[in-house]
Write a structure and sequence with these properties.
7 helices; single chain; 173 residues; mainly alpha
């Protein structure tokens, strides 16, 4: 293989890794946001701003945890760390935070829609589950999966989201 071929192969692998991280982080971040919403809804009454901050800050903390784990893993593998590696890991894990934004926005705009806190929680939970399904379907399409496989992964993630909703219903009734 030529030097150009190796460089192209590495670049393609890096792009695949980033794409996988984007979708994995998006699905994970959406599930995390749904879990935060469930927890917040069962523990008491949160003002809208507190719930928005809880969603965003939880996403940020989990992003930091994932970056730390990735960088620590790189050190364990005895690869040197440099700014590029740290920047790449931070970027690759950022979809965890991105996935928290739509549910947080849903909570923030819910008063404009005339929703009380309970309605805001349901709206945010619906947005988080939709994000989870959307990220998984997008990942399958990006991987050139068949439409049958896209539907299967979306269905599995919808089932997981409905399971989270079932937990909410069980915990609040």
């Amino acid at each position: 293989m030529s030097v150009t071929g190796r460089a192209t192969s590495r670049a393609e692998h890096g792009g695949e890794r980033r794409a996988r991280a984007d979708y994995t982080g998006g699905v994970y971040g959406s599930m995390l946001a749904a879990s935060v919403i469930i927890g917040a809804g069962t523990l008491g009454s949160y003002p809208h701003l507190e719930l928005v901050l809880l969603l965003l800050l939880t996403g940020l903390v989990f992003w930091i945890a994932h970056v730390h784990a990735q960088l620590f893993g790189a050190r364990l593998a005895q690869r040197g760390l440099n700014r590029r590696i740290v920047r790449d890991v931070c970027r690759d894990e950022w979809p965890i935070v991105n996935a928290a934004v739509p549910p947080a926005v849903a909570v923030a705009v819910s008063p404009l829609l005339g929703l009380d806190l309970s309605g805001a929680l349901w709206l945010a939970l619906s947005v988080a589950v939709a994000g989870q399904v959307g990220w998984s379907a997008a990942a399958a399409r990006r991987a050139d999966a068949s439409w049958r496989l896209v539907a299967a992964t979306a269905s599995v993630n919808l089932l997981l989201g409905l399971l989270i909703i079932a937990f909410k219903l069980y915990l609040t009734h």
